[in-house]
Amino acid sequence: MNRAVSPLIFIFGLIFGLFSASQNDYSAYFGFDPFDNFNPGFLFFFRHNINVAFLLWSGAVTFGITTLVNLLFNAFVIGSAIGTTATQIGLTKTLLIILPHGVFEIPALIIAGAAGFKIPYELLRFALGKKKEMITEEDAKGFFKFVGISIVLIFIAAVIESTITMKIAKNI
């Protein structure tokens, strides 16, 4: 059950963002500008996504509230950006810009969300009498395993986004 919560929340936010972009003009916020020479590097993308991951991980101490809010918000933003950009340059070109790094970044966010929900889930199980200890060593290991995996995926996504994705975007 715990592992399904994060992907379901992300998918809901993504769909809501796509729908919202079909009903609203977000081009002032997300848009494809072929004359934009802004070229962020690896650290820009890595730092941004690590900051998002910290907010997702922080659900471990906020009983999942910050994880829920930030997972929904970030999925909504991604969905809105996809919808807006697809309207401007087409779905195929949009996917060419998003997929190279997105195949690592999106799972990283979902896994970071799962980490943020891990501890509250275990505390709830304890409160309901489903387990004897509040937080076990295995629970902590599971949390840090999710954190580690999400960091590695964010690193890979930042490398790809700062190199391959930027080259693709310049050639579209």
UniProtKB/TrEMBL annotation:
Pfam families: SpoIIM (PF01944). The chain crosses the membrane at residues 45-64, 97-121, 142-160. It comes from Thermococcus argininiproducens. Keywords: Membrane, Transmembrane, Transmembrane helix. It comes from the Archaea. Signal peptide: none annotated. This is Stage II sporulation protein M. The lineage of its organism: Archaea, Methanobacteriati, Methanobacteriota, Thermococci, Thermococcales.
